[in-house]
Known about the structure:
Strand content: 35-45%
Shape: globular
Helix content: 25-40%
Largest sheet: 4 strands, mixed
Strand order of the largest sheet: 1-6-8-2
Structural class: alpha+beta
Order of helices and strands: EHEEEEHEEEHEEH
Distance between the termini: 23 Å
Amino acid sequence: xxxxxxxxxxxxGAELNALHAANLGIGAVAGFVGYVRDFNDGEDxxxxxxxxxxxxxxxxxxxxxxxxxxxxxxxxxxxxxxxxPLEPGEPIxxxxxxxxxxxxxxxxxxxxxxxxxxxxxxxxxEQTPSGPRWVEGRSSDQDAAQKWRR
Length: 150
């Protein structure tokens, strides 16, 4: 189980393949990769800057991992999130969940992404033709996270 926050780009395929490399008991891997888009809310986006609260962000992500492990028999769960300047087309986030069976891997991966979008302290500023703007949270993200509440 790992949480990594970094400025450097990453290879999503390599991250996905690494999930099962050391454990032949893993029968299913589910992954999610989020990318910087070149538009948002009908406006062009030339780039993005992601900020985080060092220390606090890692703890928040670890708490999400811990909760996922309580719910599903996950053999591995990794979160990699970039910060700093990003260009359209670059990967921002990777979540990978590995389990003996597909249902736990799918559910664990979706749960982590839904909670990451609503509970992790990241702030996004987009560069647009009309100037920089902070990205607000979406109600659809809150709705997605709500379905996991017990």
